[in-house]
Amino acid sequence: MDALKAEIALKRKAVQNDAETRPSKYVRRGELERLKEEEERRAREEKEKERAAGQAAERDAALARSRQNKLADTSSRSTSNTPLPESRDPDSTILESAFNIPNNEAIRRLRAKGQPIRLFGESDRDRRLRLRALELIEERGHEKAGTNDFRKALEDVESVERELRAKNDKGKKKDDGEVNNSAGSVAMVDLGLLKTDPDKLYPVIYYALKRTLKEWEEAMDERPENVKRTHQGKLAAATQVQSAEYLKPLFKTLRSRNLPPDMLVRIAEIVYYMQKRQYQRANDSYLRLSIGNAPWPIGVTMVGIHERSAREKISTDQVAHVLNDEVSRKYIQSLKRLLTFSQTKYPPEDVSQLMG
After folding, report:
1. Are 269 and 291 in contact (CB under 8 A)?
2. Which of 82, 117, 148, 218 stands the most exposed, by the fewest C-beta atoms within 10 Å?
3. CB neighbourhood size of 288 (10 A)
4. Tens of pLDDT, residues 49-102
5. What does the alpha-carbon distance between residue 128 and residue 100 come to, in Å, rounded to a whole number?
């Protein structure tokens, strides 16, 4: 009986082994997911081991470098007669820990600054420290140059006045003669050229604005010293310097003769009426140039999906150009300042032509 039971148990064990070794035709989805999870877990563990090994290697390399630096410092300190300051490795490690960025980010920032991404014999830590030093230098430079244009012009007024006082009288007389000759040679703006030959208007407008700007500068220089040294006198001189700086893009555009046609028309009208001492009309042209006379001066040209009856009233020459960009806003504002100065120096015979 015992032999029979042993034989039955042996047969059952053989059947179970055959079932385990024989490949099954169908596999359950749960088993597939379990196998996939196990593979992902093994891959994660391997990656974590590799990362930990890399960090340990970097740590060991950093410790070895710090030891070498300390040894070099001690050897140099022993050979030199003068005492040297203590090693700055703790500070550098603190700076590195505060500025710990990935390598790809450090490479991107260095390329944006136009710097080499790696110097000869430079490690990743040294590259991060070099990037941090460059950024600190730029921040200090921006803090020093963080003043606005008006404040900068106000600070330059006294230096400009000293340069003007350093000129001799002979040079001043010669400049006055040249200015008078140029003033006499400036032609009047002909608005009829806008339709026939607009290119001939560019030099006329250019020299007319240059002459007015030069007269404004001379008027600032001819003031008494007690007026120049007052706060209001310095503000007026700074305004003139700022306007001369803002008008440079306009002069460059006039020399290249690529001003937009609608802006050329308005600027030509401003200069024409300013020469005629009709400042009220010149101010109207300035308003049409700066804020426009369209129903929506910001530049809205389509307010719905349907065509409206008043759609044709909105055109490009009625849109405000002062809102296009900062450069155009600055020289348009400087044109108004030139207009105000011209009215002060050359008042009109008719009081009604004075602008408000």
Report:
1. no
2. 82
3. 20
4. 998 988 888 888 888 888 887 777 666 555 444 443 444 455 555 545 556 788
5. 8
